[in-house]
Write a structure and sequence with these properties.
The complex is a heterodimer of chains A (about 80) and B (about 170). Chain A is of the alpha+beta class and about 80 residues long. Chain A has three helices and five strands, in the order βαβααβββ. In chain A, strand 3 and strand 4 form a beta hairpin. In chain A, about 35% of the residues are buried. Chain B starts with a strand and ends in a 10-residue tail after the last helix. In chain B, a hairpin with a 2-residue loop joins strand 7 and strand 8. With about 170 residues, chain B is α+β, with helices and mostly antiparallel strands. Helix content of chain B is about 30%, strand content about 30%. The chains are: A alpha+beta (about 80), B alpha+beta (about 170).
């Protein structure tokens, strides 16, 4: 599974992307975020406020209960500020 | 039509190209977003520090985006606009990379037979773009880099266009 981090999430995790293999019990977005938060202090900091984190699975906005599976591209980022 | 690019754009040339050879167009609306030199939070009396600088002054801004998803979302918003209004043409250009105050960030233009559809769809496009397209602004200030926070007023502006019926189909 490919994880992408943007804006201040990238600053906290120290990486823009990483390849991960979560255990089989990680089946949805919420579970994935919990698992990612345990990877490092930086990850924990990036994911401390879940309300401030938006998630896209395969480039579509996703909610906490939406499924994730091996091979997915999952992006984590703050609310968008373009325009 | 949508474009995501680092380079600046020529407003006149873009608007001209959008309506050229289409006599069905009776009205053209455009919106251009620019880099401001002040962070909204700095616009308060007494917020000036030494050397006459306002606290929070923005020296430059870097727009980061999510290549792939950005184009996908802009295409979808553009498609929505064409579904909702009888448009002859539309154009969204959004830049990324580093920009200084006064530089153009975004152009939204809509052309229709009559003005109302052009006005409304232009506003719709910029309102939805601001809440859906994955761009993030990093401001350079005298105190260092600062990620711009999303504003609730942008969600309110987007919400007035009604149902969020733009998800994947």
């Amino acid at each position: 599974m490919q994880i992408l981090y943007f804006a201040w999430l990238k600053t906290h995790t120290g990486t823009g992307s990483e390849q991960v293999e979560p255990p089989a019990e990680v089946t949805d977005v919420a579970g994935l975020l919990d698992w990612l938060a345990a990877r490092s202090d930086g990850h924990a900091q990036a994911l401390a406020d879940r309300q401030a984190v938006r998630v896209a699975v395969n480039q579509e906005y996703a909610r906490p209960g939406d499924p994730v599976k091996p091979g997915d591209e999952v992006a984590l980022f703050p609310p968008v500020t373009g325009g | 039509m949508i474009r995501v690019q680092r380079a600046d754009f020529d407003i006149g040339a873009e608007l001209d190209a959008l309506t050229r050879d289409n006599p069905g167009v009776g009205g053209l609306c455009s919106f251009v977003g620019l880099v401001r030199d002040l962070h909204p939070d700095a616009r308060t009396p007494g917020s000036e520090s030494g050397e006459g600088r306002a606290v929070g002054e923005v020296r430059a801004m870097t727009l980061e985006h999510y290549p792939g998803m950005t184009e996908k979302m802009l295409e979808r918003i553009d498609t929505q606009a064409h579904r909702r209004w009888p448009l002859e043409a539309s154009l969204v250009i959004h830049r990324y990379g580093r920009m200084e105050p006064g530089e153009r960030i975004v152009l939204v233009a809509t052309a229709s037979a009559h003005r109302q559809a052009a006005f409304d769809s232009c506003q719709f496009l910029i309102d939805w773009l601001k809440t859906k397209a994955p761009f993030w602004k990093l401001e350079e200030t005298p105190d260092g880099g600062r990620w711009v926070d999303a504003r609730a007023s942008d969600d309110t502006a987007a919400a007035r266009w009604g149902r969020d019926d733009w998800a994947a189909e």
